[in-house]
Amino acid sequence: MRVGVLTGGGDCPGLNAVIRGIVRKGVQEYGYEFVGFRDGWRGPLEGDTVPLGIPAVRGILPRGGTILGSSRTNPFKERDGIRRIKESLAKEEVQALITIGGEDTLGVAARLSDEFGVPCVGVPKTIDNDLSATDYTFGFDTAVGIATEAIDRLHTTAESHMRVLVVEVMGRHAGWIALHSGLAGGANVILIPEQRFDVEQVCSWVTSRFRASYAPIVVVAEGAMPKDGEMVLKDGSLDSFGHVRLSGVGEWLAKEIERRTGKEARTTVLGHVQRGGTPSAFDRWLATRFGLHAIDAVRDGDFGKMVALRGTDVVRVPIGEATARLKTVDPELYREVGVFFG
Amino acid sequence: MRVGVLTGGGDCPGLNAVIRGIVRKGVQEYGYEFVGFRDGWRGPLEGDTVPLGIPAVRGILPRGGTILGSSRTNPFKERDGIRRIKESLAKEEVQALITIGGEDTLGVAARLSDEFGVPCVGVPKTIDNDLSATDYTFGFDTAVGIATEAIDRLHTTAESHMRVLVVEVMGRHAGWIALHSGLAGGANVILIPEQRFDVEQVCSWVTSRFRASYAPIVVVAEGAMPKDGEMVLKDGSLDSFGHVRLSGVGEWLAKEIERRTGKEARTTVLGHVQRGGTPSAFDRWLATRFGLHAIDAVRDGDFGKMVALRGTDVVRVPIGEATARLKTVDPELYREVGVFFG
Amino acid sequence: MRVGVLTGGGDCPGLNAVIRGIVRKGVQEYGYEFVGFRDGWRGPLEGDTVPLGIPAVRGILPRGGTILGSSRTNPFKERDGIRRIKESLAKEEVQALITIGGEDTLGVAARLSDEFGVPCVGVPKTIDNDLSATDYTFGFDTAVGIATEAIDRLHTTAESHMRVLVVEVMGRHAGWIALHSGLAGGANVILIPEQRFDVEQVCSWVTSRFRASYAPIVVVAEGAMPKDGEMVLKDGSLDSFGHVRLSGVGEWLAKEIERRTGKEARTTVLGHVQRGGTPSAFDRWLATRFGLHAIDAVRDGDFGKMVALRGTDVVRVPIGEATARLKTVDPELYREVGVFFG
Amino acid sequence: MRVGVLTGGGDCPGLNAVIRGIVRKGVQEYGYEFVGFRDGWRGPLEGDTVPLGIPAVRGILPRGGTILGSSRTNPFKERDGIRRIKESLAKEEVQALITIGGEDTLGVAARLSDEFGVPCVGVPKTIDNDLSATDYTFGFDTAVGIATEAIDRLHTTAESHMRVLVVEVMGRHAGWIALHSGLAGGANVILIPEQRFDVEQVCSWVTSRFRASYAPIVVVAEGAMPKDGEMVLKDGSLDSFGHVRLSGVGEWLAKEIERRTGKEARTTVLGHVQRGGTPSAFDRWLATRFGLHAIDAVRDGDFGKMVALRGTDVVRVPIGEATARLKTVDPELYREVGVFFG
Q: Which of B133, B257, D200, D311 is at 20 to 30 A from B1, Cα to Cα?
C-alpha cells in the first residue's frame, strides 16, 4: 500500500506531529510506503512530491509548521484540477490520500472522496477550533497558551500606568481563542465575533474596573464587531496598506475607549506568533493520536472519513458532515464567562 | 446563603482558580457569603477559618497552590470528628460546603453528605488524572507540560553524550503523566504502573535506539514496577534516609540499563516542580469552570454531587460513584502509544 | 533616616526587584524607614505617598511593573514644581530620595541634586538599554528574551508558507533589542535606528534567502528608517488613528518587500508584551543588586550618583554624566553581526 | 586555510551557536574550510571527523547540546596521544584547531599550543561559570533561568503545605548557579561550596521564615558542605547505586532540617535539565560572539589564546592563564546577597 499525505491551509502547531504519527505507524505496523505532496493541493495538482519515510519524520514532533509546506490552492478552481490530481495519484501509485487541513482542504477531500472516488481520509486542522464534530483541534491549545502568556504580561504594564490594554487575538468567525485566553488570562472584557458588542457597555466595564483601582485588559477576537458595524469598516478603509488586520477592531476599540472614557488605551495585536513555534504538550498528544488513527482508517479502507476528538476518544466521522457547519461559541457559555467582566 | 470552601490533599495548579470561580459567581450572581476553612478538613475540625470574599480572590487566578492551605487530615480518623465538623459549620452558619480535593477528601465529603446529612458539593482534584467520572482533572495539563519541557531539554544532553536518560515522573497508581509527557516529549520508552515492565525489553529498545545513532529517553512513572518487583523494593530499602522516591524506580532502572547494556545512563527525578507554579491556560479554564459549576450545584441544592468534565461540558455526578474506582491507563491506549517505543 | 523612593517613565520588568532590594537592606541592615511616592515625580509634586516597608515588598520580586506606579510628569514643567517637591520631602521628613527611571527621570534627579540640593540617588532604567555608563539596564534581557521567543515561533510559520516575516521590536533611538533578539533568533536581516537602511539591499538579502530554500525573518527596530526617510512618514500619515506605531516601519517595509520581490510578506508588531510580565533571572539579579547598591549610596551620603553595571560589578557614577549621551549600537558591532544577513 | 573544531567536556546550551558562528564567518568572510572532530579529543586521537560547512550549521542556533558530540577523553592520558593528534591534524591538513571546552579541554589546548606547537584557539565553556578571565560563560544564564523557574514553582507548593523545600542545583566547586538562581527565585537560604554552612544557622533561618507565616525555600549547590563535612560523606556512602548526586547534600539537609526543626522538608534535585535544551537569548548572543571572535583569532594567527567576555566586549587572553584558577564566589558578594536570608 502506498499512501499520499498533504497539509493545506494556514500553518498550525502539530501538523508535523500528525505526519510523524501517520508515517511511524504506517511503516512500522502496516508496512506501508508514503509519499508527501508539497504545499497542499498544489502538490498533487503539479505532481510535486517529497520522499516521506521514517528518516523524514525524525525529530519533527516538537517543530511547528509543516515539513510538507502548505498553500490555499483549490483544485476545483484549477483547470482540469480533478483529472490532474487523479493522474498524479495514479502516477505515484497512491492508493489512499490523507489530507490534513481546515474547512477548505477538507471540503475538497470530501468532494473528491464522495463524488470522484478518490480514497481520502481527513485530519481536521484549524487553530481557531471552529470545526464541527471534534471537541478540539490541535494548534488551538498552543495558540491559547501563547495568548494567555501575553495577557499575563500585559497586566503588570497596564497597572503600572493605569491604562486600558486591548489585546487582539485570532478568530475571524469564532471567538474560541479570545474566550479561552481571556478567561485564563483574567481579562476584564472578552469580545467575540458571535455576538456584536456594545461599545458603551465595554466602556462601562472599563470604568468600573478603574473604580476598583485596577487597570482593565480587553481581549477582542479579530472578527468581533460593534453593534454599529460600519464604524470599523469605515475606519478600516483608511488603512494605507489595505491590511485590515492592523487597523482592525483592536485599534478602533482602543481609540473609542479613549474617546469615551478619557482613559489612555493601547492595543497589542498578537498576530502570527499565535500560530508558530513548538506545539504544547496537549497539541502534540492530540495531533499524534490523530495521525495514528488516520492511518488506521486507511488500513480499514474507511474513506471519506475524518478523525475527531470526542472526550478522550478519537473517533471517525464523515468528512462532509464535519465541515458543514462552523462551530461557534455557545451563547450560554459566553454568558457563563461573563461573570468575570467588569 | 453562607458557603464554606476547603481544599484538601496535595497541592495542584488550579486550586486558586476554582476558589476564585466559586466566589466571583457566588457573590456577584447569587449574593452568597463565603468562609474559607484552612488546611483541608483540619479547618472545620478545629474551627480555623479565613475570610473569603472578592478581595481575597483578586489576582489569584495565575497563582499555583491554594490560598486556603491544605492537609491530609481525615475527620473519620479524628476523635469526634464528625460532630466537631458539624458544630463548626453550625457556628459559622454555613449551609453548604464545597470540598475541593482528591480521592480521600472527596471520599470524606461523600460520606458526610450521604450518611451524615452535611450538604457537600465536590470538585475533583488530582494531578495524576486518575479520578473516574471526569475526562481530565486540572493540574494534570500543567504537570504534563512541565514534564514535556524537561524531556525536550534532556534530548540534547542525551545525544551530546550518547547516554540513556531516565526521567522519573509523578504517578504512583496511574501512568497518565508518564504516558502524555512521554508521548509529547518523544520518549523512546514509557513505563507505567498499570503494566509491569520487562527490563530486558527496555534494554532491547535502548539498544535499538543507539543502533539508529540516537540516544534514548526513558520516561518512567514513579509507581512503575519491573516484572520481578522485589528488585526495586530490595534496592529501595538501602536508601539512607528512608525516602523511597529518590532511590526509586528511576535510579534502579538506570543502574540496570547500565549493567545490562554497558551504556552510560543517568536519572532525573522531576519531583515537586511538576505540581507547583502557575497553571497552564487549559488548567485555568478547567478549574475556573469547575468553580462556576460547583456554586451552581450549591444554588440548585444538588448536594452529594461532584462536577466533572465530559468532552467540553461540565456535568454533575454523585461524589461516591466518582471516587469508587481509580481511572488507570487503558491497555489499548498504552499499546497505541507503543508504536513509538524503541 | 527616612528615604523616599519613586519610579518614573515607562514600566520595565525589574522595577519591583529594585524597590525590594532597597527596602530589605535599608530596613534590615541600616534601620531606615521608607516612604513611596506614587507615579514618578507626580508623587512628591502632589504629596501622594504610600507606606513602604517589608510587608509592602513581600512577593514582588517576580512581578513585572511597579508597585509605586509611574508617570512621565516632569517637575521642571510644572508650576512651582521644585518648591512643591522640596515641601513634600520636608513634610515627609525624607532625607534622601532614590529615583528609579530613564533619561528624563534621572535628568530631573541630576538637576535637583546638583542645582537644588535635593539629596538624590539614581537607578538607571530603560528597556531599550540605551543609557550610557552602564553595561546593561534591567528589563532589557527580559525584552530580548520575549522577542527571541517570538522570532523562534515565526520561523516555522514563515517556512511553511515560504513568506517573509517582518518583526517590529522596540527601540526608537537605539537598536539593542533588535540586534540582540535578531541575532539570538537567527534573523536574516536586522535593521536598527543607528543606520538608515537600503530597501534594495534588504530585498536582495530576502531574495538570496529564498534562493537557499529558506524563508526570511526581518527584525526591525521601531525607530529604523530607510535611506529615503520620507517614504515612511508619507505612508505613516495615512494611518486613521494617528498611531504611528501600527503603521510604522514594519508595515511599510513588508509592503515594500512584497512590491519589489513579489514575495508574500507579513508583519508582527510585538508591542507592549516586550515590557510586561515577570523579569528574567538576569534582570531580577541585576535589579536587585542595583537596589542593594542604591541604598548603600544613601548610607554613604553619596548623592548625585547613579548605580551602574560594569562587567560584573555595580559601581557609582555621576547621574548627569550618565544621562548626557545616548548609548547607541557601535557600527563595528553591527558589522560583526552582519555576517548572518542574507 | 583549513580549521578543525571540537567540543569537549559536559554539554552546555550554546555549543552549537559557537560552532555556527565560527563556520558562518570563517566560510563567508575568510573563505576557510572546516572539519569537525567528534566527541572532544577522541576525534583527533582516532581520526574521527565529520564534514563541517554552512549546511551542517543550518538551524542549530536554538538547539542545545553539540552536533560534534563530546567526551572527557584526555590525550595526555592516552598512549602516544600527542603524536596521534598531530598526525590527525596533518592528515586532515588542519592548520588551526578551535577547542571549545572547560578547564580540562582548554588545559589540554594550552599545553598542546604552548609545548607542542599545535595552533589552538580556545572558547571557554562551563555551565558553572567558574572559569577565570571571562565575566560569564555561555550556558550559565540558561541554567540559572531553568533553576529560577523551578524555584518560582516550588514557592506555591511550599506555602500550600507549609513545608521546607530544599532545591539542589549544579555547582560542585563554585556556587554561581545557586547564588544567581537563589537570589532571582527569592530563596530564603542559599548555600554554596565556597563557604561551609552551619546547619543550626540554616535551621534558625527556616524557623524565622515560618514565624513570618511563609514557607522557606533553601537553595543548595551540589558541592556545598556543612561545617561538619563528614556527615554528608558518611550518609552519601550508603547510597545503593554509588550515585552521590541523588543522596547528596540536598537530601541530607532536608533530613537534618526535619530532625532539628520538626518541620516537614522535601528535596528536589534539578539535575540534568539544567544543562539541556535551547539556550537563552543571552547565551545565544554570547556563544555566537565567542564563535565570531574565535575565528578572528585564527585569522590573526593569535594561537594559544582564548576568547573571553569583559563587560560587553569580547577579548583574548592566554588559555593557560585563564584556566589556572577557579573563579569562585567572592565572600563579599555572598554577604551582599545574605540580606535576603531568613
A: B133
